[in-house]
Design brief:
The protein is of the alpha+beta class. It has one domain. Helices cover 17% and strands 46% of the residues. A hairpin with a 6-residue loop joins strand 3 and strand 4 (33-45).
Amino acid sequence: MAAVKKTKMLTYKGKPVFRKGNKIYYGNLEDNLILELEVLETKKVGDLDVSTKVKFSIQDNTVSEVGTGVNYRTGERDNLYKAFDIGAWWLQDALSSM
């Protein structure tokens, strides 16, 4: 019997991070809200593509498909770090007030 290969899930501050194309989803899929980040623009720095415009939003996660929920709060920043930092704080604040 073939051995089952275990893969480690990428997490940030204890919550899973998923990527699909140019969209990144952050948060537990069991929670009512998740954070969606969408990379709108990139520029080439050496061999890497670096984000220069990122849109982020807190979304309702009670719908059947991830990424199709209602946006409760939306913002835009000039790099992924800033968008992720603010969005993660918004998500934590929203989940704690529920």
